[in-house]
Amino acid sequence: MKKLHYILLIAVAALVSNCDTNDDGFYNNVYVDVPGLVTMDAHSNTYNVGEKLYLNADFSRYLSDGALLDIFQTTGATEFVFSYVIEKQVNATTWEVVTVNDSQLDIVKGDALNNPYVYGICEYNTVDQTYEYRVGFPLLSTGTYRLSYGYNSDSLDTVELRSVSPATRLVLNINSLVTGVNAEGYYNFTVN
């Protein structure tokens, strides 16, 4: 009888040790690297109270990651999402997240939700077959600020865009290199 218990224990241990812990395979996640999909409007690092910091994305359904990808056909997604956070320095070592009401965001293309980070939504334009986002974040008080794309990631110099795909389709994660951030992954600016 003891022998049977040991055999069962070994069999169960073998089964458990061979479990696939790769959720990406289960959830049909695919990753590609395509630089420059999200940009900030050209501006000096000094703003005035009342100005807006604009972020943009306008990328084709056809992207190249060594091979031409039709991301709309592959994912079925009419939206790609990403996040970023704006913080204000309150003392030499402390930063606090800046939030505004969604109605204060200047949404030109796409959509956005704010609290505690900005959840940017690039919406598919069927006319020109691109995913579009253009939103201005209002700068309402003076101070030293920083923007980071790393709210939901460990990356310092990329923004991570994720397709909002139907349940039966691939989920595409695009790692897109950004410019204008420092070695710590921040775009620093001042509001006067």
Overview of this protein structure:
The strands form two sheets. Strands 1, 2, 3, 4, 7, 8, 9, 10, 11, 12, 13, 14, 15 and 16 form a 14-stranded mixed sheet that branches. A two-stranded antiparallel ribbon has the order 5-6. It is globular and about 55 Å long. It has 192 residues and is mainly beta. The longest helix has 16 residues. The protein has three helices and 16 strands. Helix content is 13%, strand content 46%.
Task: Identify the notable features of this structure and list them briefly.
14-stranded mixed β-sheet; 13% helix; 192 residues; two-stranded antiparallel sheet; globular; mainly beta
- Please state the CA-atom Rg, rounded to the nearest Å: 22 Å
Order of helices and strands: HHEEEEEEHEEEEEEEEEE
Largest sheet: 14 strands, mixed
Mean pLDDT: 88
**Class computed from helices, strands and strand pairing:** mainly beta
Q: Share of helix among residues?
A: 10-25%
Beta-strand proportion: over 45%
Give the beta-strand count.
16
Give the N-terminus to C-terminus distance in angstroms.
Answer: 80 Å
**Segments where pLDDT lies below 50 for 5+ residues?**
11-25
Shape designation: globular
- SS element count, helices: 3
